[in-house]
Amino acid sequence: MNLVELIKQFNSEAKCRAYIEMLRWPDGVACPRCQSQKIYRLENRPLLLCSSCEHQFSVTVDTIFHDTHLPLEKWFLATVLLCESKKGMSACQIQRSLGISYKTAWYLCHRIRAAMLETAPKKLGGTVEIDETYVAGKKRRWRAKGEISVVIGIRQRNGDLRLIRAEDAKSATVREIINANIGSHVEVIMTDESAIYPWALDKMQKNLHKTINHSREYAHGDVHTNTVESAFSLLKRGIVGTWHKVSAKHLRKNPFLFRDTMLKLIDSPNLEYKHLTAKVQDAA
After folding, report:
1. Quick one: DSSP state of residue 223?
2. Could you please report the per-residue DSSP string of 184-215?
3. What is the pLDDT of residue 254?
4. 124-251 has CATH 3.30.420 classification
5. 232/228 Cα distance (integer angstroms)
6. Helices (H), the chain
7. pLDDT at 72 exceeding the cut of 90
8. pLDDT at residue 53 above 70?
9. How far is CA 137 from the centre of its chain?
10. pLDDT value for 131
């Protein structure tokens, strides 16, 4: 979902309400009071009526959008701007882009970023293997020759696998990826003896770091990166045998980030600005 697509698809309050309804009740509208699905729509008003308990409600009831003074179109615009901004977007930028007050922009940024954070996968822990590979072009020092196609693999043993597209294989880039995917509950970090990793790991991670010299051996006891390397082999075989060609950018990006963020916003209670600022002050 980019900005042009959003403007075309959600250019009215009614279309925004219809999208929220579809996300909130994919199996049909249910009364928030009695859960009955015997629902009628009131004419000329964006309200629904439950025929079982006669409760009137709107699609935004019990959500962050309830009683908001900001049009839903601007909520949607702010969400897609933050989701699609690779380097982040400040409240001042949101203020200028949407023509709203700084107070409102600040509130939007905090609520939407919190929802985006909840959509992110949990960080990995336990024993983790890390390695890098190239799925297109040829390796030339720290960059791939031709199309950039550096892929960082992170595998938690007996757990999740992450294949993440990187702009390059420099330590600063790899450090950012590691910190975004590995949590403080990690016990062991295993890599090969590449010069990248001593610079990519922080002080705590270095204490947990074990390496394997692939020029001498594939494994030394349980010290190896064979699990993540097996994932690389499957990835490359799939590209050659099934997909034939794949753009490396698709390895990292969540194509449903806008939808997933909207789902989290729908589930969020209506937290007023004064209560949000109080929480921020308490945290400081």
Report:
1. B
2. EEEEEEEEES-THHHHHS-HHHHHTEEEE-TT
3. 63
4. yes
5. 6
6. 3-9, 13-24, 72-84, 91-98, 102-119, 171-181, 196-200, 203-207, 226-238, 257-267, 273-283
7. yes
8. yes
9. 28
10. 92
Q: Average pLDDT in the 46-51 region?
A: 93
* SS3 call for 86: coil
**Cβ(162)–Cβ(154) below 8 Å:** yes
Distance CA 94, CA 111 (A): 13
3-state secondary structure of 52: coil
Instruction: Provide the greatest CA pair distance for the chain.
Output: 76
d(C-alpha 279, C-alpha 282), whole Å:
5
Instruction: Pick 274 or 175 by higher pLDDT.
Output: 175
Eight-class DSSP state of 98: H
Listing DSSP states for 233-274 in one string gives HHHHHHIIIIIS---GGGGT--TTHHHHHHHHHHHS----HH
pLDDT band at residue 270 under the 50/70/90 scheme: low
Among residues 204, 151, 194, the alpha carbon closest in space to that of 173 is found at 151
Domain extent listing, the chain: 3-119+257-283, 124-251
**pTM of the entire structure?**
0.57
- Amino acid occupying residue 268: S
Tell me the two tokens of residue 46. 């964006």
Q: What is the pLDDT of residue 284?
A: 44
Per-residue pLDDT at 51 exceeds 60: yes
Which pLDDT value is given to residue 246? 45
Return the residue matching tokens 């999208």: 19
49 contacts: CB under 8 Å, gap ≥ 6: 39, 40, 41, 42, 55, 56
The answer to whether 218 and 190 have CB atoms below 8 angstroms apart is no
